[in-house]
Amino acid sequence: MNLMVLAVVAVFIGLMTINGYLSAQTVKQTLMIRDNYIPLVELGYRLETQFENISLSLRDAVSAQDQNGLEESINVKNELLAEIDKAAGIVDENEIIKLKASLEDYFSAAMETSQRMVKGETGEKIVELMTEMQSKRVLAHAALMNVSKFDRTKLNDAFTAIASRQERSAFIRLWVTIFSVVLIVSVSVITGRVFIARLDTISKGLARFGEGDFKQKIPITGHDELSRLSVHANMMAARIQSLVKEIESFSYSVAHDLRAPVRSILGFSDALTEDFGEKIPDDAKSYLNRITNAAQKMGHMIDGLLGLSRLNRTTIFKQDVNLSKIVLDTLITLEEAEPKHKVQYSVAENVHVKGDPKLLDVVITNLISNAWKFSRHTREPQILFGSKQENHSTVFYLTDNGAGFDMSYSDKLFGTFQRLHSESEFEGHGIGLATVKQIIDKHGGRIWAESEIGKGTTFYFTLG
Amino acid sequence: MSNKFVLLVEDNEDDELLAVRAFKKSNIKKELVVVRDGAEAVDFIFCTGKYALRDKNHLPEFVLLDLKLPKLDGHQVLSRIRKSEATKLLPVIILTSSEEEHDLNKSYLNGANSYIVKPLEAVNFIDLIRNVGLYWLELNKSPITKSAMA
Predict the structure, then answer these.
(1) Nearest to A263 among B101, B120, B123 (CB)
(2) Which residues contact B117 (CB under 8 A, 6 or more apart)?
(3) Binary contact (B14, A260; C-beta < 8 A)
(4) Which chain B positions have a beta carbon within 8 Å of A311's beta carbon?
(5) What is the per-residue DSSP string for B89-136?
(6) Least confident residue range of A218-227, A395-404, B65-74, B103-112
(7) Which of A266, A359, A264, A250 is closest to A305 using CA atoms?
(8) What local confidence, expressed as pLDDT, does residue A147 receive?
(9) pLDDT tens profile A22-39
(10) What is the pLDDT of residue B146?
């Protein structure tokens, strides 16, 4: 991943460097043209004009028969010479010397011819002089042209080079743009995907924490805010886990240590009754009875708590379990224990689940004992067991037509030591359903109930 | 053989008193010797410390051993008993209030002969002691230990 990013950045920098180099070359070439060719062109133009001016001023003087006009053309010539001197920086020194000499040569010939013509001289001599002057003019002009001449091929090459560089530069810029867009899009997509995948991992980890699985840890990737989030979530989970363990070991040791004094109370109450029974007045005996009953009740509660705490620390071993068989066996056991309580029951056959057989036995025994117990005052008691499909999961149900309970207290149904009936009505310690719920939770399932006073109760549960 | 006795390792005074009463009630004729913690139990069995003058060959018929004990716990005492040549066959019965799988399995792994959970009710406790006495003193044939040969 990092290597890929490095390669992309390298290509990017490479392209930008090439582009920069090309631009610099273009600028250099343009400046070269400005500094070398343009002055030459300008120089040639100026020299040409002034050279023409010399001929014109002489011709004007001759046609006006004006001696002073001739003298003035010397100034025109000197102006030209001064202009030529200015070109010293851009033109070869020797060329300038040659040019000046040929100019002087031409000018002196032109001057002489013009002076004679102003004086009115004609004839063959003048024609001869004029011819000579003309040939010197050609020479001077040629020298003049030579000074301002430049290499057209080179200029052409320079322009072509500039043009092609500009073209390449534009091409590279196009590619840089395309490359940038592709880079930005792919980086965003990849980053987005990675981000979402990591968020998904974190959310799954948190969900498992929510289910009470604190053994797993959210994997830490990278060193950014997301990994810090994972670290903190793991820390929180570890803290919760240690708190849960603390509470478990606390409730275990409290329950365990409470058992000893209860044993003493029961033991010595019994010793009192047995060893001094005749000496104890009847009132005292009844008090002693109450002490014994209370201690017994406390003992049962402590044993229930210890059972719950043990259950909390049990690991479940899932295998195939025939729930129908457990239900039937439990009902038969209850029938044998209490043959006077005639219950009509209907049990769905071959309801198999994956679960811990020992723990599911505890669930069924508790639920059926409840159904049995709460239908004791019902005229034609009935118990139904079955299963149905609901939202892609199997829901098991156990229905009785017993006493039922007020649904507005249903939140207390599965609480430890919570009871919805008085003890004089139905015996119990409020441990059974708390145990059932804990086992169902351990299986990753859910349990709930529907009930109506006097009509009966249905317990529903799923098993993960 | 009339000077035979049973050793009870129990730190709770109430439990000790109830055990003594249960022994009386169940008509067990053996003497019940009580030690209060794990270290004292080891001293008594191996005749060290304050029991240095005790006769080494005079071992109990069996030991009733609590697990939760001060100084050395029941598991440690049991390990010491099993490590020693003289006592490795001595019957040891764990008598505890713990129903933890961990305690149960560890006790048997360490070589306990029996594991009994203290019942809450005195009536049950007397029954239990009677049964233990009947089983370990009358029905069961214990291995021949050194003291028995002496």
Answers:
(1) B120
(2) B96, B97, B98, B99
(3) yes
(4) none
(5) T--EEEEES---HHHHHHHHHTT-SEEEEPPSSHHHHHHHHHHHHIII
(6) A218-227
(7) A250
(8) 76
(9) 888 888 888 877 877 777
(10) 57
Q: Which residue type sits at A112?
A: E
Q: Which segments of chain B have a pLDDT < 70? A: 1-3, 145-150
CA dihedral A55→A60→A62→A63, nearest 10 degrees, is 140
**Domain regions of chain B by residue span:** 5-139
CA-CA distance, A392 to B48, in Å (whole number)?
70
The answer to whether the Cβ–Cβ distance between B15 and A260 falls below 8 Å is yes
Beta pairing class for A456-461 and A393-400 = antiparallel
Which of A287, A276, A316, A336 is CA-nearest to residue A441? Answer: A316
Inspect the interface and report whether the beta carbons of A263 and B99 lie closer than 8 Å.
Answer: no
DSSP code of residue A37: I
- The reported pLDDT for the residue numbered A120 is 81
H or E segment to which residue A121 belongs: none
At B21, list the tokens. Answer: 């009463």
A91-128 residue pLDDT tens: 778 888 888 888 888 888 888 888 888 888 888 888 88
Chain A residues with CB under 8 Å of a chain B CB are 256, 259-264, 266-271, 296, 299, 303, 306, 310
Query: Which CATH superfamily includes the segment(s) B5-139?
Result: Response regulator (3.40.50.2300)
DSSP letter, residue B71: S
Lookup: tokens for B52: 């240095």
Residue A113, sorted as left (phi over 0), alpha (psi -120 to 50) or beta, turns out to be: alpha
Give the 3-state secondary structure of residue B55: coil
- CB < 8 Å to B97, chain A: 256, 259-260, 263
Q: Do the bridges between strand A393-400 and strand A382-390 make them parallel or antiparallel, or are there none, so unpaired? A: antiparallel
A262 and B120 within 8 Å at the Cβ level: the answer is yes
Residue that has been written with the tokens 């291995």 in this structure: B143
Q: Which residue, B9, B17, B7, is CA-closest to B36?
A: B9
